[in-house]
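Database export, one record per block. Field names are fixed; values are copied verbatim from the stored entry.
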Amino acid sequence: KTLKKRYSKKTQNTPSARGNIMSSASSSSFPNVINDDHKNHKRSSSCIDKTTSNNNNEELDDNDNKVKNNNNNKVLTKVHSTGDLVDVDNVEIFVTETSVTNSPIQSIKKNNSNNNNNNNNNEEETSILTSVNNFMMNIFSSDHNNPKTNISTRPKNVPQKDPIEAAKHEKEFMDMMKNSKLKEEQRIIEEKKKTKYRNLREKKLKDSLKIWKQGNIIQQWEKKKNLKRTKELIFRGIPPHVRTKLWPLEVGNQLYLTKELYDIYVRQAERTLVLSKSGNQELYGKEETVTLIPLDLPRTFPALSFFQTGGPYNDDLRRVLEAYTCYRPDIGYVQGMSYLAAILLLNLSPCESFLCLANILNRPLLLGFYRMDINVITLFVDTLSTLIEIYIPSLSSHLVKFDITPSLFIVDWVMTLFTKSLSLDIASRIWDTLLLEWDVFIFKVCLSLLQLCRDQLVDSSYEDTLTLLTHIPSFEEEDLFYHIENFQFDKNCKPIAKYFNQLNNI
């Protein structure tokens, strides 16, 4: 009754109440705009509620004011902003430019002329709108498991699809929805698996931390470092808090470097930068390579942003690399050093990082690679090729077929000690054991990475093989260490023993 009263008063007393109404299509164009199945959906406060009256002779009376419906279906519309009831039999709904932020429908304007051309155009537009509306309703309300779902999207003025074509498109649509559902289910399973593994990993690290604290391993490192129990604990992964103390012990300090020496080389690097910028020729060896260091810093673990310009470790990393360049001007700065120094800085102080970096690069294998000693590189490549032939014969045959040698992909692995090719967590765990076993463990990691990719590699073309070897696909951490553990050879293995004998003679 309130609505009736408001309608009759507004139509009598406020002729401009419908000033925003513009003439448009007949009401027969609108039956599908709002589906009966979606009447209960929430609308924004400025949207329009519609009610239809199908009785030809129904009367709305209040104070002797009556409105009669025509033979055609009428749509009575309440505009919330004004409270008016509007006959939508001859209106067009449109969206103005300024209405986007408030509501899909902002304006309704009265049509003062029933032009036939306008009616035809409006009917065509409404037909297209209705088809789009039906399509969206079908998507949101249909059962994806029901093969009879109607996905027709063609407007009335376009010829209908051929039945065979329509069936084909419907099948493709259903397959697409099914695949999408399967992918989502697989994603959820993977997320649960990762969460479970992460929780298990954290629990193992907590248990391991207790053992490290109670076992006095760090305090008695020289006595316990070669014990089987200690090596097993290290292979499982060292807790981050323990790494800060254990890594320097594993690396050692055979060069007898000190903090005072580090400070001296940092100051010397500053003078070297000034001299190199002024074009002075009094630099020793490859000291001028300090100017290359800033170029490599943003490319070191770019996903972390720790070493980017303005990052928390940018200056520390630069100083450590500059100090090493002045400490070993015969080597200078070489690409790859930044990754070694960066992973050390994430666990140690700048001074400790410098001491460890200098001792790591003093190892015969690393020193040979950074000096680009062809004899050392060839020896390592040949030994690895022999191990691949022994332990992964199918992959060895595949590489021989395409004439691919480990020299094409192994340089990055060795010079960065896997920090560039693998995730930081996996690389850190590799370093836990690598810093203790060195060359033997490096061979095991190389073989394990190849073993993980073997099935993909043996079925790949030449180009795909090289891509896989230079861009290792993601894998589970435990899968890698499972393969590492399965390679049981040690330094007494014939190829390894031969490798060490020749390395010592170079």
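Remark 1: The beta strands are 48-53, 59-62, 65-68, 74-79, 84-87, 93-94, 107-108.
Remark 2: The mean pLDDT is 76.
End of record.
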